[in-house]
Amino acid sequence: MGYDGRIAYEDIIEATEDFDIKYCIGTGGHGSVYKVQLPSGKVVAVKKLHRVESEEPACMKNFQNEGVGWTKRVNVIKSIAHALSYMHHDCTPPIIHRDVSSNNILLNSELEAFVSDFGTARLLDPDSSNQTLRVGTYGYIAPELAYTMKVTEKSDVYSFGVVALETMIGKHPSELLTSLSSSSSQDIMLRDVLDPRLILPGDPRVAKDVVFVTFLALKCIHSKPQCRPTMQQLSYNLLIDVPFPMLPFYAISLNQLKNQVI
After folding, report:
1. Is 181 among the domain residues?
2. Which domain holds residue 145?
3. How many other CB atoms are found less than 10 A from the CB of residue 31?
4. H or E segment at 157?
5. Which of the following is catalytic: 4, 11, 90, 99?
6. Residues 6 or more apart from 251 whose CB is under 8 A from it?
7. 175-219 residue pLDDT tens
8. Annotated binding residue 22
9. Is 99 a catalytic residue?
10. Same domain, yes or no, for 44 and 86?
């Protein structure tokens, strides 16, 4: 990069404000990944090895039995979307995680989400075919990886959609995914699949967020990769107040959400 190690390290410290948490885009068993913009303008991802921490982040799965409310669940999904968007669209070259699952999402005591375990991550090379062996966690792997070894960011998008649905319904959506692939999905009502341990959202704003997150998740699990949104689109839509037409909450079906246009 044209720098000696000391100057480069000082640039990293300055760019991350001494590794401030707001620059952290992911964490794993041995370290955390930070977004760094160098003086040259180039944006890179830097991994900082962990030292002993007083607070250990917990796996997202451990919180599924805690009755976490709708707003916090929506915020967790937003955090994951923003992290994956950065990896896919702001890193050079782009980083594809390839194993997005609830086991690889860590939450701190404030329920802030961090993408973890970059052991299977791959850099996308525009001059390469990006062929690789299939990796990932069963139940989260995009269906096209059954017949192709080409890595694209859309496989992460599918996995994100599964995690988002899992967060909303309180368990892995394996049965729901099977049902959605059949014509009977038009009879599945949103109210019937949401986590039954929580009261259905009564606040109109919270209800809108729950519906919108579920809508985006359904777009992510489309069987055709080219029909899935990008993580950048998802991150953007989760940041702004999108005017989203909504029937009365009790009347919304998953089929209606599947057919709704972003």
Report:
1. yes
2. 58-259
3. 15
4. helix 153-169
5. 99
6. 189
7. 999 988 876 555 799 999 999 999 999 998 999 999 999 999 999
8. no
9. yes
10. no
